[in-house]
Amino acid sequence: MVARRTYIVEEGPNPSTDYFVLPALKHEVNPVIRCTWADLPSEQDLAYSSVIFVRYVPANWKQRIAQVRSTLARLVYFMDDDLFDYQASTGLPWKYRYKLAVHATRHRAWLQQMKVSLWVSTPWLKAKYASHNPALVEPEPIEAPSPACRVFYHGSASHRDEIEWLKPVIEQCIDANPSISFEIIGDHTVNQLYRSIPRVTVVHPMKWPSYQTFLATPGRDIGLAPMLDHPFNASRSHTKFFDITRAGAVGIYAKPGPWEHLIAHEENGMLCPMEPQSWVDAILKLAEAPAIRQALVQNAKEKITFLSNPRVL
């Protein structure tokens, strides 16, 4: 017996699928499979199945669909912008217009030839393309994500080596725990370095006063303070302890490091040698233990309060 499936063809995870297409398929009997442009099923797998293009029609899929159209149970094209009319994008950046033209607009006639069912997101689109007999798909809210754990590293340009060192650590943590996200400050090169990792936010560098406001924004859980053996690092102070604690997060600090006299391991932070697996283990342990994180943060705050009180030396 042939297994029937519903294939969603999308450039990658996107709001169009999440807000519109998936809710429209919530009563679907067949398994729903999300495919990127590169994920091309065989002709046998597509037989008697449904295919839904989300906004764009990639060339490899177009060729395959032309070969198997007669065996498909359903072919759908969904758009939530006016993608069939090139003039509608007048004034938008030319690279974006080119993308729309190549992957959407120029396929309108082919989609009609393939007898596609058109799904649209608004009454305006439904009225404009009434000749296609489109179906109006209403958006639905996305379910709130499970409780997340936000890990961050706020290093300046002088910490380029640490930024590169952290990448495989973060990759492994994010692969291991879907609740973990990562925030890092960096320029375009840092964005290029981390862009392939899901749930990573790269924040553009900012002036000190702006950073103070930014750091006070709630929502961070684990702060990282790696430090490689480099001559420039020999003169570092322990201010990362203050920054991480003020952010309301528990810190994982390099050992050796200038903060060792302040950090009691697993009491007001964690001290880890600069070995990647040690950091992966520490991050995953804290990510899965919110009560422990809260206790360590409270102890760190008390340590800072103690340090802030006037003392006779």
From TrEMBL:
The name this protein goes by in its record: Glycosyltransferase family 1 protein
Annotated source species: Zwartia hollandica
